């Protein structure tokens, strides 16, 4: 009722129970927890002192104007988290989470900070628009005067590095953040010399943060030039733990829209679909050629669509080659390119049992579920639920979230034999710690097939887990446990680490 009153004061008209401006049923707004309710208006994840003051004001008097909001919240409440001024808000109460640019805390941020204390250079790689620049600017804002940020897509910043040794030599005590590093590949030799020179002076860590898309040539050149001086981390699209507190249906939204921030945070499904369609087009026509490979955009689009149609299935190179009118060798080369660009994942088969007739072909996933749906023309959840790809799409989203949460030492694969034994995902933390995971998009009957149990015996699994979309955790038998994705990511994998 409180939310409905606020909306009416803001000039929003709506039929009983539903607000088209905000796209929410009032019964869906959490009413018991003040922090959850307020986060819907403010689009915030971080809980600041200013927001606590604003909460007290809202729940005692209500907010009747943007000016009142500014007086209570203060002038510096939102510049980092939303990137918008209060006066830019479209109406008095258009402070819903989807109307602001939310700064979601990325799980990899403390990892990057830690690596900068141990390595002279850290490389942060990821697809375009995944949030690398936003994360770098957040780090720069925390370091303040002890960091320098250069965007190498800007001619003015590239001009500063016309003599990189001279310019970078003036900032020996600062962390230099070089964004879009693939625009200046010749700089790696200079970075090596500067790092070695500073090492001799006792400065051995936290000198450079290099951001770039996963260019094949870039990785090869930097690996050769900065060997022993740089460590790499991958920034993936948003994951389940990163968005879990945003709203009650954030998990479903992540599945439908995918984890690219601009897609996930779009105002509605239509805007999200348009963003992903434009992303695919520009990536094929501009970004992929700029990152090395020279492949016709239409051919690569058809190939990407065929992979989406075969999501979470074993690679059938002959079928793909026939559909594209190319050789099997060319199909393999296309797959290598998509994997290197971090757009497609190739999950290898488990191969430690020489006595069984195991399938030796890898499974292939388009890594972002939102891109899968855009490639197949699926615009919203209702359309997805009636599509044949629904199970494979959910399996791919779950597995990608699990793989992104694993420690680097963990080995992953899948298991399938010629007689039908199958395990969707195997995680090996060590020689004597092997987990078997089955993914089931069924709440009523998540029990795995007989082939899963046979596979668990074959690989001698120490844990047997079924992941399903429900919230309850329970055991099917003494060895097999059913749980949700967030339970696995939040508790079980944390213990395993």
Description:
The chain is of the alpha/beta class. 44% of the residues lie in helices and 14% in strands. The protein has helices at 2-9, 34-42, 49-60, 66-73, 79-82, 109-116, 132-143, 155-160, 164-169, 188-200, 216-225, 240-243, 250-257, 261-264, 269-290, 297-309, 317-324, 328-340, 369-375, 381-385, 390-405, 450-459, 485-496; strands at residues 18-19, 24-25, 121-125, 147-151, 175-179, 208-212, 230-234, 313-314, 344-347, 363-366, 411-416, 422-430, 433-439, 463-467, 474-475, 480-483. It has a 6-stranded mixed beta sheet. Strands 4-5-6-3-7 form a 5-stranded parallel beta sheet, with helices on one face. Strands 8-10-9 form a 3-stranded antiparallel beta sheet. Helix 10 (188-200) links the parallel strand 5 and strand 6 (208-212). Helix 15 (269-290) packs across helix 16 (297-309), helix 16 packs across helix 19 (369-375) and helix 21 (390-405) runs parallel beside helix 23 (485-496). The longest helix has 22 residues, at 269-290. The protein is globular, with a radius of gyration of 25 Å. Residues 1-101 have low confidence and may be disordered.
């Amino acid at each position: 009722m409180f939310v409905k009153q606020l909306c009416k004061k803001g000039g929003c008209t709506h039929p009983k129970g539903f607000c088209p401006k905000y796209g929410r049923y009032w019964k869906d707004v959490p009413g018991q927890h003040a922090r959850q309710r307020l986060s819907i208006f403010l689009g915030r994840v971080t809980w600041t002192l200013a927001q606590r003051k604003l909460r007290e004001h809202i729940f005692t008097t209500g907010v009747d104007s943007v000016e009142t909001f500014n007086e209570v919240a203060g002038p510096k409440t939102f510049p980092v988290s939303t990137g918008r001024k209060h006066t830019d808000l479209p109406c008095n109460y258009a402070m819903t989470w989807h109307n602001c640019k939310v700064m979601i805390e990325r799980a990899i941020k403390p990892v990057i900070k830690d690596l900068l204390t141990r390595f002279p250079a850290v490389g942060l790689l990821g697809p375009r628009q995944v949030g690398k620049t936003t994360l770098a600017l957040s780090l720069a804002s925390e370091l303040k005067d002890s960091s320098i940020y250069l965007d190498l897509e800007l001619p003015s910043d590239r001009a500063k590095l016309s003599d990189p040794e001279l310019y970078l030599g003036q900032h020996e005590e600062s962390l230099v953040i070089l964004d879009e590093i693939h625009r200046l590949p010749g700089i790696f030799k200079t970075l090596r010399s500067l790092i070695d020179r500073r090492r001799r002076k006792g400065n051995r860590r936290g000198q450079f943060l290099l951001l770039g898309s996963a260019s094949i040539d870039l990785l090869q050149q930097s690996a050769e030039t900065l060997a022993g001086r740089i460590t790499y981390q991958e920034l993936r699209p948003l994951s389940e733990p990163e968005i879990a507190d945003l709203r009650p249906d954030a998990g479903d939204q992540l599945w439908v829209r995918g984890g690219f921030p601009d897609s996930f945070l779009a105002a509605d499904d239509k805007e999200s679909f348009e963003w992903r369609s434009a992303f695919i087009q520009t990536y094929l026509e501009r970004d992929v050629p700029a990152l090395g490979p020279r492949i016709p955009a239409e051919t690569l689009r058809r190939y990407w669509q065929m992979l989406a149609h075969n999501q979470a299935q074993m690679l059938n190179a002959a079928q793909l080659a026939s559909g594209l009118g190319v050789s099997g060798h060319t199909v393999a080369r296309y797959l290598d390119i998509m994997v290197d660009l971090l757009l497609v994942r190739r999950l290898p088969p488990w191969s430690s049992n020489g006595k069984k007739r195991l399938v030796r072909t890898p499974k292939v996933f388009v890594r972002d579920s939102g891109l899968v749906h855009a490639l197949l023309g699926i615009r919203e959840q209702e359309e997805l639920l009636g599509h044949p790809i629904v199970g494979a799409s959910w399996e791919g989203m779950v597995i990608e979230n699990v793989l992104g949460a694993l420690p680097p030492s963990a080995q992953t694969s899948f298991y399938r034999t010629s007689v039908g034994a199958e395990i969707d995902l195997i995680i090996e933390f060590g020689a004597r710690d092997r987990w078997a995971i089955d993914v089931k998009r069924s709440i009523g009957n998540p029990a795995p097939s007989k082939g899963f149990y046979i596979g668990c015996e074959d690989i001698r699994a120490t844990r047997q887990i079924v992941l399903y979309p429900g919230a309850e955790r329970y055991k099917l038998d003494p060895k097999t446990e059913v749980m949700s994705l967030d339970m696995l990511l939040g508790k079980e994998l944390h213990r395993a680490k």
